[in-house]
Amino acid sequence: MTKATGPESELEMYMAVYRTSLPTLTPALNRLSFRYIGKSDQLVTFNGKVIGVSEELLSWNTKDMFIVFTHEVLHYLFHHIGRFRAYSLTERNRKAANLAMDLMVNRCIESVDENKRLLTTQPNGQYSFVLPEGMVELAKVIPPADLAILKQEHLTTELLYKYILEHYEELEEHMDSDPIAG
Length: 182
What we know:
Elements: H1 7-21, H2 26-29, E1 33-38, E2 44-46, E3 50-54, H3 55-58, H4 62-77, H5 80-85, H6 91-115, H7 138-141, H8 144-152, H9 157-166, H10 168-171
Helix pairs in contact: 4-6, 6-9
């Protein structure tokens, strides 16, 4: 019997390493599945249960690929997909909601090295969580004075969403062209 090869088996190998690298995410990972989606105009897709991994993402270095996996798993843990699907959102509001959710998830990833509460890394520090180039960061999107006020009000996805809607034109360059699924 020959062993399966190709992108599907490569993804399975990465997932085996990912699962053992981040034991705190095991309960969530047991409820999700990862599937290879081949060539796609999206790096990754997520419908609430299945994370689709594109050919491009599979070509990334392991550390950055794992950060993207973690980003999608955190969307699941924060119930982001369901929370905003319940509303009938316009395209503008969907983009604002997507940016708010991405900012909150990436904020958690950025703070992992500081507080170590959300995720654990391997003892050698191989998977330090620094956002890959191009991922939105709270400090680069929200002006410092506004960010300080938002943090005083206990920063939530919903609070960020409201802020983004109020400052939509200023923040539009950060909007994902592919907002959350309806």
